[in-house]
Amino acid sequence: MTTRTLRRLPAAVLRFLFFALPLLFLAAFFFYPLANILGLSLSVDAVSRFLQRPYYRDVLWFTVWQAALSTLLTLLVGLPAAYLFARYSFPGKGLLRALTTVPFVMPTVVVATAFRALLGPTGPLNSALQALLGLDAPPLRLEQTLTIILIAHVFYNVTIVVRIVGGFWASLNPRLGEAASVLGASPLRTFTTVTLPLLRPPLIAAALLIYLFTFTSFGVILLLGGPGFSTLETEIYRQYVTFLRPDVAAVLSLLQILLTFGLMLLYTRWQQRSAAPLDFRPQEENAFPPQTALQRLAVALLVAFLLVFLLAPLLALVARSFTGRQGFTLAYYRALPELERGSITFVPPLTAVRNSVGYALLTVVSASLLGLISAWLLTAARRARDWLDPLFMLPLGASAVTLGFGYVVTYDELRTSPLLVLIAHTLVAFPFVVRTVLPVLQGIRPSLREAAAVLGASPGRVWLEVDLPIVGRALLVAAVFAFTVSMGEFGATSFIVRPNSGYLTVPIAITRYLGVPGDLNFGQAVAMSTILMAVSTAGFLAIERFRFADVGEF
User: Fold this and answer.
1) Packing angle between helix 108-119 and helix 293-321, nearest 10 degrees?
2) Which helix (H) or strand (E) holds 425?
3) pLDDT tens readout for residues 220-239
4) Which CATH class name applies to 330-554?
5) 308: helix, coil or strand?
6) What are phi and psi of 198, to 5 degrees?
7) Is a pLDDT exceeding 80 seen at residue 32?
8) Whole-angstrom distance, CA of residue 177 vs CA of residue 299
9) Helix (H) or strand (E) holding 365
10) Contact criterion met (CB below 8 Å) for 480 and 442
11) Domain boundaries, the chain
12) Is the pTM of this model over 0.90?
């Protein structure tokens, strides 16, 4: 071995370790916890206990059919909206389209709190009906009912239909339907025989994605459904936290993993089919102002419905945070820096806000670093891309609840420090960074790197002076994604943070305040939810402002 080779050896080892960092991270904090769940679930006692109790089969059945019903209702609401955006142009269309996306970026605890503020006994809807009908009691009792769960799921996921189906629909040549109409087909027959078959791939892809999200719904079921409703997600949490049965929770987690990975596989296949519509045309060429009075009326009614449906919960949340028993008040916000006697959070609510911001900033650094390395590795290692790409996306197929459970089983000694929370947030945000940065890196022309190399630049200098400046804007979007995801993360953190820990986050603090009766407790929960909503909305606006128009998958 020559002296020159020996000198290069440490650099090669360091380069290998650098690019192996994402794989080592996934091995330690994704696969290893899941392996421990698998080992725990294979206990004979746990399996027999699961099989002998019909209750667990009921939980599985409820998880399946509520997700199916939520998906159906979301499609019924979303398809008219998708058609509206695909075929009509009207003032404020871009703003309304952005508004449909805002609920999707909201943390689940914010959505749950917003619907409790809107539809609760003291909410504006019940108050208006009481005043209008002269009633002494609220006429609507929607808390802890299936109805409010379904409404929240539709609210949360309607943008999926608008984005996936509406985007595909907008690219279809409208002359296909016009030709059928000329041949005598009715509008209904034209839709069923021409449009619907073309929409089948994106429609199925959207339905599978909605089903996956509602199947793994945690915060909405836990906070809006209460103890009367339980899915696999909430039951995993209750079996471990409430009943101290980690073996049963492991069996449920294994079942959850198998089903969600299966759904992810189906979604990936149908999503690829919906990527290129037949007879593709630019979307702006297919949208026209409504021509007839009936069209104008239909567009106006649909726009009004979307505005009310999307804005009412969020506006009710903000209004409730400034409304006390005596009217307008700032008491709930003024109470955030204080620790009330007998508080269940053990720290002032404002401390939870500071903790969440700190976690989010650290998550930006860690997730951006790991995601950037992974994206660069996917770009450079073309032969390994076929197995590396799905490997990096696996955290998206595992629910945050399952990850949190795996962490407390594997790294319980770390629950006394905030490190485990940071690791969980990084893992959840990591795939979003990869999918945001990767398309930009893949779009860099190889000739730019080759020219820099010819001029004597080392690989590291090529990366710093060619790749990084080009990918900087996408990296900024990815950083905002990581920050927003971390601020709203609830599933994994609910397992990791101990009840008396000083490291609790805003979603955990909101949940605890919602679980305790009292006007001040609910008011502080609403105030913190409003702050979290403002942060999430600002993050979304930043993403829409800085992202490349057609680059990135989120």
Assistant:
1) 100
2) helix 419-442
3) 898 888 888 888 888 888 88
4) mainly alpha
5) helix
6) -70, -30
7) yes
8) 20
9) helix 349-380
10) no
11) 35-137+146-323, 330-554
12) no
